[in-house]
Each structure stands twice: as C-alpha cells, then as structure tokens.
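Following up on my earlier thread - several people asked me to post the actual chain instead of describing it. Fair enough. Here it is, all 210 residues.
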Amino acid sequence: MNTIPAHLDHLVLATPDLAATVADFTRRTGVEPVPGGTHVGLGSRNHLIGLGGTGYLEIIGPDPDRSAPAGPRPFGIDTLPRARTLTWAISPPDLDAAVAAARARGHDPGPPLPMSRRTPDGTLLPWRLTDGAAAHPSGLVPFLIDWGDSPHPTASDLPITPLLSFSATAPDPDRIRPLLHALDTELPLSPGPVGLAFTVETPGGPVRFG
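Reply from S.P.:
Thanks for posting it. Predicted structure:
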C-alpha cells in the first residue's frame, strides 16, 4: 500500500503551546515552519510546513494574542497535555460529490461548513470543510476540505520536509478501512491504541512524529 494517502491535503499536529512545538519541530528537523495565520473567532493560530506536492503540515495551537473564544478551540487544544498528531484532511476534486459518494457507501462525513483564516499580511482566506471530529472522533478518518478560490497554502513557497510515510494504529483496523474506502482514500493501519504518526525527510535524515 502507498504510505501517502490519496487526495492528502494536510496533517494536523495540535499543541497546547504553539511556540514550543514550532521550536521543537525546528530543532528536530532543521527546518522552521512559517506562520500561517489566525483562525477568525476561534482563538487559535497555526504554522505551516510543506510535505511535498500539495500536502502540508499544520501545527495549530492557542493564539496568545487573542482572548479566549466563547467556545472550545479547534481540535480540543484547550485540554491537550502535549503536542499530538490528531487528524488529517483530504481534498477531493469535488467536495460535494465526495460527501454524497461517501454517504452512499455508508459513511457520513457531515455537511461542508465555512471556515477562514487571516494571514499575517491581513488577507482573509475562506474555505469549506467537514467536521471530522463529529463524523468520527478518533481522528483516523480524515475530514474533507475545499479551498475554493483561495490559494492553497502550498502555493506560498512553504519550506519543505518531504513526507516519507503516514500511518495509524487502531484497536480494530477493520472498522476503519471501510470508512477510508468510502472517502476514496487509504491509510496504512495496524492494531494498537488509537494513534497517527508521520515521518519526514530532513537535512539530518528521517524524523518521526506521533
């Protein structure tokens, strides 16, 4: 099986301390992620690094320059004890058609919802995505994203640490595989506690993150 999933858009490395996790990634890889921007009204911000092609890594954490939002921050970062690879996203050619096809195959990824991020230069980038946590709280089943008319994050000349592999463990992998199939993607799965891990190439050799 190909260890790079079909339609991969990005991986989500969530953290309770964004600055510390960005510094750790930089120390371990020798490559520094760049600021992505703030998520409007959600109290979070991110840093980004390319994974090769149109894939990228999002490191997301609380925005220290914004007051706490009315509700919880994305990906449960308010309660995370440490940085973790929590979930991932795919970008199918047609988001609405992919949602309909998945439902026909027995998996409902949820309706596409509007989201946005304001870049460091003040530009507002809108997109649509499904709520992966509501559809499957494990994070092993990806959410779907459509950037619409917004430039894709990898179009901004991100620094790159090429993705070598991406895989997951689950107590019952056979319950996850049909859901991935419903979304027309795949992910190497093996028995174990729920978890995601990826390995990137760096100037100093491969580095693995969990």
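The longest helix spans residues 18-29. That should answer part of your original question.
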